[in-house]
Design a protein that fits this description.
Elements (H helix, E strand, L loop, with lengths): L3 E5 L3 E7 L15 E6 L1 H11 L4 E9 L2 H12 L3 E8 L4 E7 L5 E6 L10 H8 L3 E4 L5 H10 L5 E5 L8 H6 L2 E5 H8 L4 H9 L4 E5 L5 E5 L4 E4 L12 H14 L4 H15 L12 H12 L9
Length: 308
């Protein structure tokens, strides 16, 4: 393995149910079987980075002192993720309630629980300082993300996935090396009406912006540089839960091993396209071999381009 990724973020139990269509306000629908699985944007991204197979991965977060927390910790460790800084909180383990319709679209409500207690202590600060890439999201307190940004070593890359959408503390935004957002988040953070307008507005605050565009792929813009665009492989989506997290985790691993922008985006897009074909978040994250096969089919890359 080359490079290391430390994820500072959330860990949730996902409780999901399939429905023919998403319910309207005040409406009750009959759904399918309830599914319980590992989730949380931070944990999902850690699993994706670990399964990419090319970067050492560690998790900084919190779970409750309950059976759900113990099970989620064990699951992360089974993927080879260093959970020495996944602390146990007096609060219950975070829970996400998810509905998924027949086209794979979803709605999600998160009860943060222990995720609100994520803080950096001496051990987790040292772990962050060891990372080549620090990967964070907005399902934990922004002050904790800012503390991680300040703790990273010189030359380490802070990737902030600004999800779920929230206004970002200007001090945190100023510390970001790469901002990853979907179209909705890009428009919200920039107050723009189109992605083409949002990107330059965001580049006034951060040196690089990556916008994920679902079935349309992704674009990466660097301040003063060219735009890199990658189309998404064409697939039939079953469940989009966690697809963006798969993209971010694989992207973080690719950056940690030194991939160029185009190769990193292709790795991430290929892995995300496999993820939407399965059910659940972490359950659907592909192995390195599965993602490599998809990237070879979608982009015609050789093995030398898909190392790891």
């Amino acid at each position: 393995m080359s490079g290391s990724v430390v994820v500072v973020g959330s860990v949730n139990l996902d409780v999901s149910v399939t429905v023919d269509r998403l319910p309207a306000p005040g409406e009750t629908l009959l759904g399918g079987t309830v599914r319980r699985s590992g989730g949380g944007k931070g944990a999902n991204q850690a699993v994706a980075a670990a399964r990419a197979g090319s970067a050492r991965t560690a998790m900084v977060g919190a779970v409750g002192d309950d059976p759900e927390g113990a099970a989620l910790r064990a699951s992360l460790e089974s993927d080879g993720i260093d959970c020495s800084c996944l602390r146990t909180s007096a609060a219950p383990t975070g829970t996400a309630l998810i509905t998924v319709d027949r086209s794979g679209e979803n709605t999600i409500v998160v009860a943060a629980g222990a995720n609100d207690d994520v803080r950096l202590d001496e051990a987790s600060t040292a772990l962050v300082r060891s990372a080549d890439v620090v990967l964070a999201q907005l399902e934990i307190p922004q002050q904790t993300v800012l503390a991680a940004a300040r703790a990273r070593r010189a030359g380490a890359i802070l990737v902030l996935n600004a999800a779920p959408y929230a206004a970002v503390d200007p001090e945190l935004l100023a510390a970001v090396d790469l901002l990853v957002v979907n179209e909705h988040e890009a428009l919200g953070l920039s107050a723009a009406s189109t992605v083409d307008e949002a990107v330059p507005a965001l580049l006034a605050s951060v040196p690089a912006v990556l916008v994920t565009l679902g079935a349309a792929g992704a674009r990466l813009d660097r301040r003063g540089g060219a735009t890199t665009v990658v189309p998404a492989p064409r697939v039939e989506a079953v469940d989009t839960t966690g697809a963006g997290d798969t993209f971010c985790g694989v992207l973080g691993a690719a950056i940690a091993r030194g991939d160029d922008d185009l190769t990193a985006l292709r790795h991430a897009a290929a892995a995300a396209s496999v993820a939407v074909e399965g059910k659940g978040a972490q359950d659907a994250v592909p192995s390195a071999a599965q993602a490599r096969e998809r990237a070879l089919a979608a982009y015609g890359l050789g093995e030398a381009d898909l190392r790891g």
